[in-house]
Amino acid sequence: MQRASNAPPENGGARQGERLMWLTPQRVFYAGLLGAAAERTMGGHGVYVSPAGVPPIRIRIGGGAWQTGELIVVPPQVPHHVESQHPLIFNLLIESESVDPARMPAFMQHCGPVDAPAFVQRVRDAHAHLLAASGRGTDFEGFDFDALFFGETLAPRAIDARIRKVIDALVADPSAPTSAEDCAASVHLSFSRFLHLFKQETGMAFRAFRAWKRARSLLRYVRQTTTLTDIALDTGYPDSTHFSHSIRQVYGLKPSDILAGSRRLALHDAAGGFRQ
């Protein structure tokens, strides 16, 4: 997400009051520091939008050429580098198992820069709306994420009930040491059939899906003052080395940089309340 050590001073960059994150089980909206992230690979449908009046974002998909745009879309599990001349960036994440990819808005069915000025303006307006609510100390419980950003509810993905049961368990407790064998047995499928069906229904391999949910759960801890070792154990990693390696693969940043860059972030967590 962000790296404080690479951000310009407050008086020349993103102001403290502009930064917030809205975290729900199936959606994330992040308005904060980008920093000098290395290659990242997210598990959800990603959207990057530049704030009004600032230079476009630069992105490199895999080892391809750099491209620029005010709106950039990245499908799940696509490695990419993102750069911005401005410290503040808007980033949405939509969980892959929560939406039907064939019925998403047309601009979301691309990879790279996309021309959708109406959506860009909607994201910028939504940021302003959420900032005002956050400034009043209002939590976001009564807000409809999809309506605010997309103007409609995104079509849900139809998933086999057995795979849905496993997904719900992983989302409820991503830190649990659950193996694919355990999950297959819990829904009365053979191991090979379970792995095939899971990827077919979610678009992601079981192992990648579990790794993403675990890394995503770090976002709930960005405003806590506990140690990195404690966070690693709480989020299900066996040790801090494995924790750091996994987080860097997903976000392109070390966990310590993510936490340092979140000190002035207003966090609205649907499961954990509002922390400012």
Main attributes?
disordered N terminus; 2 domains; single chain; 3-stranded antiparallel β-sheet; 9 helices; 33% helix; Arc Repressor Mutant, subunit A
How would you describe this protein?
With 276 residues, this protein is an alpha+beta fold. The strands form two sheets. It has an eight-stranded mixed beta sheet, covered by helices on one side. A three-stranded antiparallel beta sheet has the order 5-4-7, with no helix packed on it. Mean pLDDT is 90; it is low at 1-14. The protein has nine helices and eleven strands. A hairpin with a 4-residue loop joins strand 4 and strand 5 (66-69). The protein folds into two domains: 4-156 and 255-275, Jelly Rolls (Sandwich); 161-251, Arc Repressor Mutant, subunit A, CATH 1.10.10. Helix 4 packs across helix 5.
SSE arrangement:
Layout: E1 20-23, E2 27-33, E3 44-49, E4 57-61, E5 66-69, E6 71-74, E7 80-83, E8 88-95, E9 112-113, H1 117-135, H2 145-150, H3 161-172, H4 180-186, H5 191-202, H6 206-216, H7 228-234, H8 240-251, H9 255-260, E10 266-269, E11 273-275
Parallel strand pairs: 1-10
Antiparallel strand pairs: 1-2, 2-8, 3-6, 3-8, 4-5, 4-7, 6-9, 10-11
Quaternary state of this entry equals single chain
CATH superfamily descriptor of the largest domain: Jelly Rolls
CATH top level of the largest domain is Mainly Beta
Number of strands: 11
Share of β-strand residues: 15-25%
Biggest sheet overview:
8 strands, mixed
Q: Percentage of helical residues?
A: 25-40%
Which architecture of the largest domain does the CATH hierarchy give at level 2? Sandwich
- Tell me the count of domains: 2
Please state the average pLDDT score: 90
CATH fold category name of the largest domain: Jelly Rolls
Order of helices and strands: EEEEEEEEEHHHHHHHHHEE
Number of helices: 9
Structural class: alpha+beta
Calculate Rg over CA atoms: 18 Å
